[in-house]
Amino acid sequence: MAGRFELLSEQGLRLDGRRPHELRHIKCKMGVFEQPDGSAYMEQGNTKVLAAVYGPHQAKGKKTETNDVIINCQYSQATFSTSERKNRPRGDRKSQEFKMYLQQALSAAIKSELYPRSQIDVYVEVLQADGANYAVSLNAATLALIDAGICLNEFVVACTASLSKSNIPLTDISNIEEVSGGPKLTVAALPTAEKIAFLEMSERFHIDHLETVIETAMAGCREIRDILEAAVKEHLIHIGSAADWGRVC
Amino acid sequence: MQTLREFTRKTKRGNILKIVREHYLRDDIGCGSDICQHCFQNDVYALTADHDLQSSLFKYPHYLVLDTNVVLDQIDVLEEDVLRNVIILTTVLNEVKHKSSSIYKRINEIIHDRRRNFYVFVNEHHKDTYADREPDETANDRNDRAIRIATKWYDNHLKSSQVSKSFQRSGRQVTRVVLLTDDAGNRAKAEAEDILVATASEYVKSLSDHPLLADKLSHKTFANEKQALPQYPPHLSLREILEGLKQKKLLQGSFQASRENYLEGNVNVEQYEKGILIQGRESLNRAVDGDIVAIELLPQSEWSAPSEIVLEEKNVYADDLPSEERTEEEKVMLQQVRAAAVVDAERTPTGRIVGIVRRKWRQYCGILQPSLIEDTSRHIFVPADRKIPRIRIETRQAATLQNQRIIVTIDNWPRNSRYPHGHFVRSLGPLGDMNTENEVILLEHDVPHCKFSEEVLSFLPKMPWTITPEDYAKRVDLRDLYICSVDPPGCTDIDDALHCRELENGNLEVGVHIADVSHFIRPGNALDKEAAARGTTVYLVGKRIDMVPELLSSNLCSLVGGVERFAFSCVWEMDKEANIIKKRFHKSVIKSKRAMTYEEAQVLIDDSTQDNEIAKSLRHLNRLAKILKKRRMDNGALVLASPEIRFQVDSETHEPLEVEVKQLRDTNSMVEEFMLLANISVAEHIAAEFSECAVLRRHPKPPTTNFDPLIKAARYQGFEIETETGLSLSHSLDKCVKADNPYFNTMIRILTTRCMMQAVYFISGSLQKEEFFHYGLAAPIYTHFTSPIRRYSDIMVHRLLAASIGADSTYAQLLERKSNEELCHNLNYRHKMAQYAGRASVGLNTHLFFRGKEEDEEGYVLFVRKNALQVLIPKYGLEGTLYLKTDKDGKDGHERAKSTVVFTFSEEDHTQRCGNVVFHSFDPVTVRLSLDSSNVQHEKLVFRLVKPYIKGFSVETGSESAADVAAPPPTKKTKKNQKKK
Q1: Lowest mean pLDDT, pick from A195-204, B45-54, B482-491
Q2: Which pLDDT does position B335 carry in this prediction?
Q3: Which residue among A217, B269, B540, B638 is buried most deeply as judged by most CB within 10 Å?
Q4: What architecture (CATH level 2) is domain B24-215?
Q5: Closest chain B residue to A177 measured between Cα atoms?
Q6: What is d(CA B128, CA B153) in angstroms, rounded to the nearest whole number?
Q7: What is the pLDDT of residue B943?
Q8: Cis peptide before B349, with omega less than 30 degrees from 0?
Q9: Looking at the partner chain, which of B24, B815, B818 has a beta carbon nearest the beta carbon of A18?
């Protein structure tokens, strides 16, 4: 409580003018590159992420021995993504951590039984970082996987949540809210199945609050899922119109 | 809608960063007015169409928009319940928050008061009122523009709701929006943009129904002073100060004015142990006690020593221009001091103030100085606190305020004014009235003492309160035990009770039962917040300022005799040698068999004919307590002394009738021992359970230099004080006994007490385990558990303990280290202030007691100083100064020159010698006490020597002509006294 900045004004607005449950503005586009099998660009407020997917292709080396699909992720953050220049775009601890988290969440969504002994590569590049980097990366990766035509159980989306001093949960945390010292909770979920694929907390929540904060993050996930779904449909109408797919949807 | 806000910022390393943030603009922000027909309002309407304020400037209903400078400067006007229907823009609110957190707090309080109709409009996020910063525009200009845009928008917005035919038919006047600003530039621009605008003072003066409101206006300039010459050197700008600090040319510290000499002060700077001396009006350069200032160190050749002169400012009048004489006088004084300093070779670092980093001005209590000229509106205000300079104010109600205690705040201090400028805030009541004087004490010590608000009271249990079967089920039933409480007489907030019984295995069961306040005060509600803010109950003479409402403190929580009450029990099983075999904590229901005073309990123990259960239990307790105490002493706990007295107060007039020294009986120490034991047991328990967030209390070992005066004083008497450890100190204190002076030991202990540090609350996670130590009690760990009715720390400890034994649930803040740390900080502050307030109250009552009296009392010399004796009077717990030499510039100086009495001070053994009379420290003396009431603001007790008799110095019996060199003549001499002689 002490030293923590108040994240929610008495008029019920957050630092950037959102209300507690509101997401940032989301823009997304699929099929942004020709070279990879699938790609997507996603903006959530000022956090901007590119994702590219290669595969499924035959796994190389020793990896072929397992029957499962191998999901290979790479997370990197452009040197120009933060206000102070980053020296190492990838390979640092944080990136390694995010890479593992991406693998964990994606493996829950991909129908792995369909791709034995094959490998799927997911490359994520954060162009501009303004909070919830992991969540936006995962959402972009989901779109790229869909663009690549990989079978998923359902959309896997992530959203962050925090708690204001007055104990009101906040959805989709921006960078300023992250650094102001609020606790941060990240949830990656399969919203329809109501399953949580991944959950991370930056600090401890009291048990009384944890449930409401998770529920807030889940509500955020559902909202993002709806936005992504609409975007996918629109994309399909667009690319499929030549083949008369437009009428299908 | 969304826009981006870009700005640049410098990092700590000096890099320039560009920061881009999102900024959402909304269309769902209401205007808060009940006239409006467009906005979606999710709130109750804050702004109303009714308007009863008559302004000669704007003769139609209007809303006010305030500029930042109006909020900052005229907060006292705003606090007055006159202005209504005010729109506060978030631009303004943010600026205020940035500039002054105390004013931000106050404006927020006004906003929260629903009756005041203040509305916060989030103009920064409204799609129509957001102002983008233009290139080359300063932040200030942008904010001014944003305020104008919002005002304009409001005006048009409301107009558009008031053009309908139905509105015109109603015949009501159109409500407009008026901008109040004190910024001339902003005003001119607003006028050009067709905005209704006025300055705050124009507007306030135009309110015909509230003529007195103008007194509260803060003034930036006083009309007649424009031509006056600057009397002070200019202050450096903040940037120059920062630059100077960086280059180590300047030093920063908090300024402390001297209580004795208005031309002297001290700045506490980190590197300098004793602080830096500031002397002379120009060097002080308009610093007020408490300010954070930047100073420049003078070259060593100009260093000076603190003058040991008491210098009080003489009365001056508002219209006096600074006379040449006075400055001359001051110069002389400075030269004298400097000259003396060269001789003394006690020179300390001296400096001068070149700039103010931050003002710490607050509201000051005091009185108005009677003015020479009638019908003037300019007056001089004399603060009660001697460290604060006089303040010029403008008021038209001087006649009514003449005999009242009033509150004034400082607005500014221009270079050409001798005194700061301020304005009247409110009156406390007539001078000399007990309530008024208490109010002054409470205000000066920042004690929250207003009545409990409705909201707070709403969280009290509903009466009649009964214990439900569920309560019994949850608690251990101890109603059959012979529990009793022992307290001082007249105590209504009983928070502890004791019992002791023999167990079948021959051991003893001892229980300490503490009022279960945390049962009634649930975390997070208004009641809890209020209690946390107050921190402690404050005891003044004849008055108690409760931390929790009376229903709890004197009724539901208080463990009164014969009534069932909830308690938090700490029960030990002990063997006959007071070794703890088992301990347990639980919540319980008790029924105290009897509430006794210390005296009653003592009688019961001593009276061997009494053989009931209570007497038996008390005797066991008493015996165990003695063992516990001895054990504690052997560990090195200190027995300290401070003179404590009680006043018998007249129930009607609240004036002190009699003074008695608090007596200490066995039973006092008995209760104390078990409270200590309970506190220590609980501290061990919660520290083990909550290693990060337990609320504990520690008492640091004082640095060895603190003991220097004590060691010196004892050495002159031929005693050595060892201060290596608590144990050695305790032993050496025990050895300080003089057969011919029974009070000697107590005095040594009083001096020891003054060497001690303050004990403080802290959070277990914030310190190393070794630092938990409580020096005075020689306990490795300690906390406060036993007085939850009067201390908030105890409530916290109760909650932690309850959570650890599963009797209550935890909540988020209980376990948060940071919030607990902040709480401890507040508790420490409140505790200190409560202590000071208590002492101030005793001082006040001592003065009242001596009003019109003169008494000869036995006393002891506590210190021998160069020009005075410090005398302690045990009967009143009073300490005062008996001057042997007079002030250099006092009138008495001439008289003294004639008298033949000369005191010689000996550096060697610290004695004063006059003829064949020698004063040592700790010598008994007899002094005559009387009250000097010549100064209404600062009445003071005057000490005059009676015995040993020194011709020409001591008080002559009965004769008025007695040369009275030490003090001004007494105001009254009662016949009774003269007869006695």
Answers
A1: B45-54
A2: 66
A3: A217
A4: 3-Layer(aba) Sandwich (3.40)
A5: B21
A6: 8
A7: 80
A8: no
A9: B24
